């Protein structure tokens, strides 16, 4: 039964990391989404949060993706006088997304996803081997 628990916990980790990668991809996709009107705000970077949940069916704690929060750091200003979102000085607010940070977060999420996947595969192999031993 403990192998089943480990698979359920790892599966919740897979789902959470998948959601995390989706939000990171959204941040990357909107990294150049400038404000559309003068004084308007551009895309604001989202930050992933995780929640601990109790799975009463198996009696184990699992992880789930929580509601994303918004990064409160200041927007960057870029001089683009011909842009429709430029202010009277020619500056446009740009998203507070840093491509390097997003790339590193994506890599970390991928590694966590792979670790959870490896745990599921190892548990599956152990269950299969146990069944084979019991058949003999």
What would the keywords be for this entry?
136 residues; alpha+beta
Short summary of the structure?
The protein has two helices and six strands, in the order αββββββα. It is α+β, with helices and mostly antiparallel strands and 136 residues long.
Care to describe what's here?
The protein is α+β, with helices and mostly antiparallel strands and 136 residues long. 48% of the residues lie in helices and 18% in strands. 14% of the residues are buried. The mean pLDDT is 93.
Shape: elongated
Structural class: alpha+beta
Biggest pleated sheet: 2 strands, antiparallel
How many strand elements? 6
The count of helical stretches stands at: 2
Rg calculated over all Cα atoms:
22 Å
Strand order of the largest sheet: 1-4
> How far apart, in Å, are the first and last alpha carbons?
21 Å
List the helices and strands and how they pair.
Blueprint: H1 2-29, E1 46-47, E2 50-55, E3 60-65, E4 69-70, E5 76-79, E6 91-94, H2 99-135
Antiparallel strand pairs: 1-4, 2-3, 5-6
Helix pairs in contact: 1-2
